[in-house]
Amino acid sequence: MNIEIRDGDEKKPAQAKKPTDSQSELRQDIITGDWVVIATGRAKRPDDFITKERIEEDPNVADPFVDLVASGQKEPVLVYRKPDGDWSLVVIPNLYPAFAAGRMPKDHSEGPYFAINGVGYHEVIITRDAKKSLADLELWQTAEVVDAYQSRYSSLMTKKSVKYIQIFHNHGKEAGSSIAHPHSQLMAIPVVSPYIELQLRGAELYYRNHKANVFQSILDHECESGVRRVYENEHFLVFCPFASRVAFELWILPKRSDNPYFERITEEEKISLADALQKTLKALQKGLGDPPYNFFLNTSPCDGREYPHYRWHVEILPKTSVWAGFELSTGIEVSTIEPEKAAEYLREQIQSE
Amino acid sequence: MNIEIRDGDEKKPAQAKKPTDSQSELRQDIITGDWVVIATGRAKRPDDFITKERIEEDPNVADPFVDLVASGQKEPVLVYRKPDGDWSLVVIPNLYPAFAAGRMPKDHSEGPYFAINGVGYHEVIITRDAKKSLADLELWQTAEVVDAYQSRYSSLMTKKSVKYIQIFHNHGKEAGSSIAHPHSQLMAIPVVSPYIELQLRGAELYYRNHKANVFQSILDHECESGVRRVYENEHFLVFCPFASRVAFELWILPKRSDNPYFERITEEEKISLADALQKTLKALQKGLGDPPYNFFLNTSPCDGREYPHYRWHVEILPKTSVWAGFELSTGIEVSTIEPEKAAEYLREQIQSE
């Protein structure tokens, strides 16, 4: 968020609002140990976050995902078809991959530095309709997306060079999406990502200290307290984390207690996840005026080791602010709405459907 | 950066450029152990990064820093005056602080979660001219800014609740600056920030493994190799880090080998830092068309402990891209220009002055 002195963005002049001292709260992420600031002294109302303007897509740019052959895309690695023969979902290798198939990571070290080549896979998961986001699709269509995530994950996790697979989705230009046509991405990479390492270490440490799974402790407390709960179905809880890194951050946490590995999701859980994802994204769309967002699926590495204290889950970060000098330099994020208020607001959106 | 398939942002259609496999490189940060991707397979030329459009400041918004009394600011805590009596630099407490003076951190824990109140200080360092950025000022004016950093740092580091002091500067709306009038910020906080912790631990570990200071190893290698050097004066080396997190990332590293603590900067070093900072920011301004950027000053915590293996320094992150789903989920940043090419380009800007 923006940590400047308030200025003309506000309707009232700065001096009209009485500043109050020391109202902000430092909350610690129970898993990673990182800190966030909930700056309630400069708190906003939930509807202050409604998206005012979005960067428009250039209407002259052709959609490269409408006709995959004409736009020169690579051969699909997975295709789901509708009864009429047309595709409903397709997975293609990224034309300009950040990671690409190749020989095993090769040492590119220089002086004291260490580097390897970016061996891996970079795929794009595309739904047919150019205009409908995951929130707008039929439930079966979003379930197909989840199914494709699992299918591609399972195919790539056994590749020799792959240590971690990240699945993510960028919605809106401000969230880094350069193509308006809805799509998710998958990157299979030769190292375990630093953020997952941090969560794994934290989960391990929590288990040692409390003889409990940290995700179960979160689930139990959030179900009991209810103040940050946004939605719940048979297999998943959706809530705003206690130490939210951005306004309206959301997590979708599986209730099943014995599953660190996304690839082991059941058929029933897939439908349930699709439902939770849609309800949540719809609540954001309705409550905040279709904000840009990123969501991603965090799971255990596929590096041959066991991670009994982890639990796969989905994290959703709406792009409600810019991370500026303080966030970038410290790694401490500043949020201007309490997660409890954000949760209440999103809960209302779902209840009023 | 944007990790989508390339689309109409490019002048050429996607299929006109032949994709090449496995050209990207995973580089490891020698201090933190984190990874970055240098995606040379989608490499751009340096001038591809020239800022095309900037979000304009609203001309109807009054500058709150021109007349501090009229805009209802708090009493300055530091004022530097010109011979004519007008101020040239002023430091004021932030009207809406993310951290504010108060009693010692108080426990706000809830269930399994931990939180404390945000006790601390949040100040704004303002230079007189509303239009001139640090790159445009006279050398003595930028030296005054460095002097003010040190002065306020020294005043706040002994406060009981303060464990870490972060000084930073946001330039441009895209980098999170809501007020066009150039200013830096200082936040004195009751915890050591996660990013500094990571660097401290890394420096400690490097010392144990190599019996050497990691910052000295970097300095020695960068001076010897020269490929990433951008500028150098008596006391500082400016270079693009081997594992740059964004295109055109820059570090200003002191040559003095025995100083983990910014507050111990000498008078001579202050002038030298002002020179290095100006040359660097001017090179960015000239080479990339005044891009938005954040810079920050990383130094040892002021928590009463010693950090012999650390070295204070400045990190500059131009806002050349958006961190999207992959970066947010993994903590691995993707950059589309080699730091060596970025350094060469910026070096040319300085040499052609």
CATH hierarchy class name of the largest domain in chain A: Alpha Beta
Written as H for each helix and E for each strand, in order along the chain, the element string of chain A is: EEEEEEHEEHHEEEHEEHEH
Q: Quick one: how many beta strands of chain A?
A: 14
- The CATH architecture category of the largest domain in chain A equals 2-Layer Sandwich
What is the residue-averaged pLDDT of chain A? 89
Give a verbal description of the structure:
Chain A is of the alpha+beta class and 353 residues long. Chain A has 2 domains: 14-50 and 193-351, 2-Layer Sandwich (HIT family, subunit A), CATH 3.30.428.10; 78-189, HIT-like (HIT family, subunit A), CATH 3.30.428.10. Chain A is built from 6 helices and 14 strands. In chain A, the strands form 2 sheets. A 10-stranded antiparallel beta sheet of chain A has the order 3-4-6-8-7-12-13-11-10-9, with helices on both faces. In chain A, helix 1 (139-156) crosses helix 4 and helix 4 packs across helix 6. At the A-B interface, strand 1, strand 5, strand 7, strand 8 and helix 2 of A face strand 1, strand 5, strand 7, strand 8 and helix 2 of B. Strand 1 of chain A pairs antiparallel with strand 5 of chain B.
